[in-house]
Specification:
This protein is α+β, with helices and mostly antiparallel strands and 193 residues long. The protein is 21% helix and 31% strand.
């Protein structure tokens, strides 16, 4: 039996912040559109802003389905699984918003991520929780966390902001989603912070 929560605080917040990976799920409004499920990692790229708001860094290197879907309809679910320790799954169903590099809020939001920020940060996705719940997670396997992969940060760390913008321009499904929805604004706004 799961629990519903009014806010992200105490043990729930500690659990969320301790997980090395989480997942995002979004979908377009069109019934034949592509549902998207994405793993997210890299230490420090998710922050709990307050007891009903979270934010995570959206990096280059893949498509922009999540951004396209939250731009169209705002629906997003975040999920964390305990792969070690007591079994638990936490889901936050909420409304997402992509904050881009040219948004006046960018500087304040990006500062929350400290050293986790990187040259390939292209948006901050802000999620306002509508439903916060957990379930047992008894069927989730126990796995050992070995550490962070550094390949993504190293690869994009070698690119200037201009080179990263050019990379985004060349990739499929960055400016538009698989279903043709507007995704990342191109040309990519330059970093001001």
């Amino acid at each position: 039996m799961g629990n519903l929560y009014e806010r992200i605080d105490g043990r729930l917040r500690t659990f969320i912040e301790a997980q090395p990976v989480f997942f995002t799920a979004t979908a377009p409004l069109a019934e034949d559109g592509h549902v998207n499920l994405s793993p997210k990692g890299r230490a420090g790229t998710l922050v709990v802003i307050d007891d009903r708001t979270l934010a995570y860094l959206d990096f280059g290197g893949s498509g922009a389905e999540t951004i396209a879907h939250v731009r169209e309809n705002g629906r997003i679910t975040l999920m964390w699984c305990a792969f070690s320790g007591p079994p638990k799954i936490v889901r936050i169903h909420g409304e997402g918003e992509a904050v881009f590099r040219d948004d006046p809020r960018w500087g304040e939001l990006i500062a929350r991520f400290g050293d986790a920020d990187g040259p390939s940060a292209r948006a901050v996705v802000v999620v306002r929780a509508g439903r916060i719940a957990d379930v047992c997670g008894y069927a989730v396997p126990v796995m050992e966390y070995q550490g962070e992969r550094t390949l993504h940060a190293e690869y994009f760390g070698r690119k200037t902001d201009e080179e990263f913008a050019a990379y985004c321009e060349k990739k499929d499904h960055i400016g538009t989603s698989l279903d043709g929805l507007p995704a990342l604004p191109l040309p990519l706004p330059p970093r001001t912070v």
